[in-house]
Structure formats: structure tokens, C-alpha cells
């Protein structure tokens, strides 16, 4: 009877192989940060507008905005991304490039999660502020832009930063539609080099290196800046 030999699979873990691909990984990180920051700004502005609409006396407006918020908060971002990428061209008969579909989906998602943040901040503004605006004869537009929005933004800064961190981590999903972000680049290199442990570990470290300081910043802002100026 011939002996049976089992070939051992000697797997190695060597992060030094990542050094040759640092520039490509940094380009992917730059795109991730650009998309995250841009969609965070657009989504926050849209979220503030939606928060005002949710406090509208019109029942129809409140119902529609509530459905929007609950839908985008209650469904996975990946499903939203796929829906925009695949369904928008069918519904609107217009081609939607991957980058545009990413911007649309991330902005709509950010608007939904920041809407509740701003709504809570708006409710914390005392009625005297509104009465003072009426006494001064300010128009609703001037009141919102120069009085309400600055105070709501100040009170919403800590949760807004937390929302941006969540958006940054969720942005790893955009690699599924072919956008060359950090996750996409890391996966592509790991597939090409057959070394997924090294490159996916590096990608995880990069995400942590960016998200962790931002997480600590939330605590600093909440304990110092917000307590000093908002209350």
C-alpha cells in the first residue's frame, strides 16, 4: 500500500509586501475621504432642510419626509447603492455613472441620519429665540439662515461628527459598484498578488487610523466646545 503524503500549506504573513503599493492605497484613501467629506456636507445640508420639513404643520409634508427618513435609515446602504446604480437608469432613462450613483446614495443616506440629529437640535432651541425674531421683524429665511441654523449646527456638532465617522466606514461598500476607493484598491491588489491577509489587514488599519482620531475628537468637542458655547 502506497503511503499517502499530505502537502502542508505554509501560509506566511508579511506586511513588508505592502510597501510597494502604498501610493496606490493612498490614492484610494484620498478618493474615499473626498467622497465622504463631499457627501457629508451635502447630506448635512439636505438633512437640515428635511428636519425643518418634518416640523411643518402640513401633515402631507410630515408624512412624506418621515417615510423618506425611515426608509433610508431602515434599509441597508448596500441595497440603496445598488438601487441607485441599477434602477435609476431604468426609471429615469438616463445613464448614471458609478461616481454619481455613489454621491447620490451616500448623500441621501447622510441626509436621513442627520435629519434626526438636526430635529433634536431644533427642538432644543428655546421659544424666546423665535419670539425675538418675530419682534425684530425678521423674515423666515433670515431667521433660519442667521439665527436658527447656527444654533442648531452648534448643538448638533458631536452627533454630526459621529454620523460622518459612520459614513466613512460605510463608504467601503462603494467598491461594489466599481469605484476605486480604498477598499476597492485593497481588494484588487490582494487578488492580483494572492496575498489577501496582508493587504486587507492594511486596509483595515488605515480605516482605523482615520476613524479612531475622529472618534476621540467627538469626545473632545462634546466635553469642551459644546459645554462652553452651546449652553
Overall description:
By secondary structure, the chain is mainly alpha-helical. The chain has a single domain, classed as MetI-like fold (Orthogonal Bundle). 77% of the residues lie in helices and 0% in strands. Helix 1 (22-54) packs across helix 4 (98-123) and helix 1 (22-54) runs antiparallel to helix 7 (182-193). The protein is globular, with a radius of gyration of 23 Å. It starts with 21 loop residues before the first helix and ends with a helix.
Number of helices: 8
Q: What about the largest sheet? A: none
- Extract low-pLDDT stretches: 1-10
Provide mean pLDDT, rounded.
Answer: 84
CATH fourth-tier homologous superfamily = MetI-like
**Which CATH C-level class is it?**
Mainly Alpha
User: Any idea what the CATH architecture is?
Assistant: Orthogonal Bundle
Distance between the termini: 85 Å
Total domain count: 1
Q: What fraction of residues sit in β-strands?
A: under 5%
> What's the alpha carbon Rg, rounded to whole Å?
23 Å
Number of strands: 0
N-to-C series of helices and strands: HHHHHHHH
Going by helix content, strand content and strand pairing, the class is mainly alpha
> What's the shape?
globular
Question: Looking at the chains present, what oligomeric state does this protein adopt?
Answer: single chain
Brief rundown of the structure:
With 231 residues, the protein is mainly alpha-helical.
Give the helix/strand layout:
Elements: H1 22-54, H2 59-74, H3 77-92, H4 98-123, H5 127-135, H6 140-170, H7 182-193, H8 196-229
